[in-house]
Fold:
Amino acid sequence: MKKIFLIGGSGILGRYYAKKLSHGNQLHVADIGLKTKKINRNRYDYYLDIQDENMVKNFFLDSKKKYGAFDILINNSAFTTEMAMKKMKKIKKIDFFSTEIWDQTLKVNLRGPFLGCKYFIKYHHNNVIDQRVINIGTIYGLHGPHHEIYKNQKFFSSISYSSSKAGLVGMTRWLATKYAIEKTAFNLISPAGVYNNHNKEFLKNYIKMIPKKKMAKEKQIYSAIEFLLSKNSDYVIGQNIFVDGGFSAW
Structure:
């Protein structure tokens, strides 16, 4: 039985990951949208604000004291475009260059995973056991969006989201080359858009950019996590795995 941290478990993908990962593993899910409680014998939920370094530190330290060293960390938390839109409603406009949105996005999407990795290494790293760290990025981390498909939509492509996820690529590779020799593999998964009741106009325009001609499903993104957690993926180090229906192959 693996002991797994899933940081970010209340969104559409996080909920799916939590459901799948709880089978046969001891799963500890932390998110600002959760309450601290035991769900069942395999799953524990925690309230965690990854912008608060002391809270992150204590989360990993307390877990080590109570349960011992963990095997796996999955950094899935994100300040998404949807969250940015809710903030922007307060100021009555979409501002691509909002400094407030930029700062909060980087705090959650880049500084947050940095803190997760920092304290996972400090309190749980063990060069005797096979450990894995998976960071969750986006296709827009290293590939620019097609801005025209967002015209006339009630949502948009966020410059801060793309920038934060691009930083995550560099951070993952730095950690991967540092800790590969110590049996901890760091990798990144970069998904394409996951279908979530998108309107027909956006769906039509979006899939034009995808050779597979469809948006992703949760299970297709999870398949990459499943692979990276498998025993024989231990030679996969520092990779950015695109699960994008061919978007990055154009």
Observations:
- The chain is about 40% helix and 15% strand.
- The beta strands are 3-7, 26-31, 37-40, 43-47, 72-75, 131-136, 184-191, 240-243.
- The helical segments are 12-21, 53-67, 81-89, 99-124, 159-179, 200-207, 218-229.
